[in-house]
Amino acid sequence: MSDTSHAPPASVRLEAESLARQGDWVSMRSLLDQTWARNPGPATAAFINSVWKAPTEATAVLPLIHILRSFTLEPARPLLRAAGIALGLPIDVRLGEFNAYAQELLDPASVAYTSRPTVIVLAVQTRDVAPQLWVGTGSPDALATQARETAAAFAQWIGTLRRCSTAHLIIHLLEQPAHARNGVRDAMDSAGQRACIDLVNDHIREAARAAGAATVVDLGSLIAKIGRDRWHDERRWTTTRLPLTTTALQELVAEWMRSISPVCGRTIKAIVTDLDNTLWDGIVGEDGVEGIAADDSSKGFAHHDYQQALRALMDQGFLLAIASKNNPADVEEAFARHVEFPLRLDDFVARKVGWHDKAQSVREIARELNVGVDAILFVDDNPIERQAMRSALPEVSVLELPANPMQYASVLRESPLVQRLHVTGEDRRRSALYRQRSLAAAAAEQAHSKEDFLTSLDQAVSLDRVHEATLVRATQLTNKTNQFNLTTIRYSEDDLRRRASDPRSLVLTASVVDRFADNGIVAVAVLHHSGNVLTIESLLMSCRVIARSVETGILAGLVQYGRDVKCTHVAGFFRPTAKNEPAASFFTEHGFVCSRRDPDGASHWVFDMEQGDVSCPPWLRLHSNLHNST
Amino acid sequence: MNMSDVRTQVRQLVADLLQVPLDSLSEASGPDTVAAWDSLQHLNLVLVLEDAFSIQFEPDEIGELTSIAAISALVAERRSST
Predict the structure, then answer these.
(1) Which residues in chain B are contacts of A248 at CB distance < 8 A?
(2) Which residue in B16, B44, B54 is closest to A6 by CB distance?
(3) Does A5 touch chain B (CB under 8 A)?
(4) What ranges do the domains of chain B cover?
(5) Is the CB of B47 less than 8 angstroms away from the CB of A42?
(6) What is the rounded distance in angstroms from the CA atom of residue A402 to the CA atom of residue A412?
(7) Which residues, in sequence order, are CB contacts of B37 under 8 Å at separation 6+?
(8) Which residue blocks in A489-575 are alpha helix, DSSP H?
(9) How many CB pairs under 8 A join A and B?
(10) How far is residue A547 from each of residues A437, A543, A552, A583, measured CA to CA in Å?
């Protein structure tokens, strides 16, 4: 009899109680995240859900996840709640009635729509929706017919979901049975059981793609990961209609989180990695440059794979940085000598190599890259360094690595914080842009004055109406920009599309080209005019171009547009958040007058265009393409 | 882990899951005496106990989990037989 319990240890309970008394919910989140990483099961979930009493729970409107299902999934609810809390993304979870998914989703008045969920999950099993395909009974014709009918049903369901809701959709694909009725012949048979289920899945994927804002759950790969014997629990199925083991439920919840997290904007922007025994095997200061490895040898394989994972994330727009306790010369030599590493030293856009503590390094990296510390994921093989980071900077996301380096890469790849639903051209070029930006920062130091610097940047700002090709990028910016953001309103693609087609509204994007780089689209504004007032509903700008007076150029373009549509005033409001201090003085700096302050801190501003003007600074070239279709 | 440790832990897990104060639960507490302990939470509790103690209940045992005392006895028995 072993004494290993999966319940959270007493020491964690005591610490959580103490943090709750102090009201330190940031440190609490970090503690719960660490506890969840050790054992993401029902006992830990019950603990997390009972101790998480942050004040925001009572006041904020939490993202709602609505689950439509054909089978018992109630035990997934506390697991999903706890996973969200651990991640810093508290959510509400609601389940549709048992096996009532079709009625609920076909009824436009159902609570699945009226509760306005952020995400709708459609979890339907093969054995419920297509029993013949699951068991394999009936003629080949009967199987083909059921496949066609099932595909058509899914197309109808997904189409209806999209018509009735703007929620992100998570659609379960159909599972293949463990054994086909015709045994070994089935895998070759183009009209066999497996082929029919594959066909349905192809149609589900196609319908999900057409719906937009959707992801599918490939049950086959989830089952393959843990094994079919550990996935199904037929005993539970026959007694409670819960077909899954606890392990399977945990995997499913983790998979849902990988969509929910990016949908809700809870992702990181930069990954700060340790070097010794993390990026490579060995300690360069002790084993020497030749003694370290990250190749496909038995010694270096796990670290090679970890570097490959980092590289793939870099290619999707995540920034890479180093925090290492080492001599800088050793590190440079290590990268120079080991050309077989998948990553080059240059791929890391910020590097802190020395002997200072890593929390300090992460703070400096955040400042250099102009991202919040809560947008950083810290990876280190040393549990003491991880603990130190959690204590000093509890806002930082810390990846809990298992003891076996072979799992480093998969733990990183599976983190909900590094999932992207779309990858834009800006994402692919981001690392290159940041490398160029450090040149720009160097130029800033050399320039005698700010104006000289801004002139030397040679910036051109283009203002355009949003269109289909720029909609994804514009939506993405509204969802992840936290610093220079006047109102922090988040928009879906559909929200922006609707506003763009309304003649009294305007959604514009601003692109900036400078001497160093084509920065692409870096700002978005949402406006509407009624009577003689042009109202700025939202204006936000990527941190990449903060402090370059791009916002003044945009406002100058807006004022010109306002005059064109016969407005006399520009109105706007500022809603303070924990992060948007950089935008706090926007209205004052540009001559707006405060007309009202709300008790919650929001302020309302007006600019009289008959009394004043906003002109574009001389160091900016402004190209406004807003008038053509008005 | 002795019998009194098992009892303490079972009580704590039930309090966590049902989100009720620990001192509101006694040995005799069960689905009939605690309002929050409905059939849905009973299913969740089975998963919590199986996870916490690395055990598995047989389907016919689930109906026997009628009080914290009964649960603790069954958990202790299961753990000693594995």
Answers:
(1) none
(2) B54
(3) yes
(4) 3-81
(5) yes
(6) 11
(7) B14, B18, B29, B30, B31, B45
(8) 493-501, 550-564
(9) 65
(10) 13, 9, 10, 10
Please work out, in degrees rounded to the nearest 5, the angle formed at the alpha carbon of residue A89 by the alpha carbons of A398 and A541: 90
Residues in chain B: 82
| The total number of residues written for chain A in this structure | 630
Task: Please report, for residues A102, A110, A161, A174, A233, the alpha-carbon distance to residue A211 in angstroms, rounded to integers and kept in the order given.
Answer: 18, 20, 9, 18, 33
**Searching chain B, which residue's CA lies closest to the CA of residue A244?**
B47
| Structural domains in chain A plus CATH codes | 61-263 (3.40.50.1110), 270-418 (3.40.50.1000), 446-625 (3.40.630.30)
Residue A325 in 3-state DSSP? strand
Closest CB to A239: pick one of B9, B59, B82: B59
State whether the Cα torsion A360-A364-A16-B53 is positive or negative: negative
pTM above 0.90, yes or no: no
* Contacts with A1 from chain B: Cβ below 8 Å: 79-80, 82
Q: Which of B2, B10, B47 to mutate to test the interface with A (most CBs of A within 10 A)?
A: B47
* The amino acid at A192: G
Topology given in CATH for the domain delimited by B3-81: 1.10.1200
**What's CA A13's distance to the chain center, in Å?**
30
Q: Which helix (H) or strand (E) holds B71?
A: helix B68-81
User: Could you report the average pLDDT of every consecutive run of 10 residues in chain A (630 residues)?
Assistant: 70 96 95 96 97 83 95 97 97 95 95 96 97 92 96 97 96 96 91 96 97 96 95 92 96 98 94 98 94 92 98 96 95 96 95 92 90 95 94 96 96 98 86 74 57 82 94 93 93 93 94 87 94 95 85 94 92 92 90 90 92 90 77
- Phi, psi angle pair for A145, to nearest 5°: -65, -45
Structure tokens at A470: 């720029």
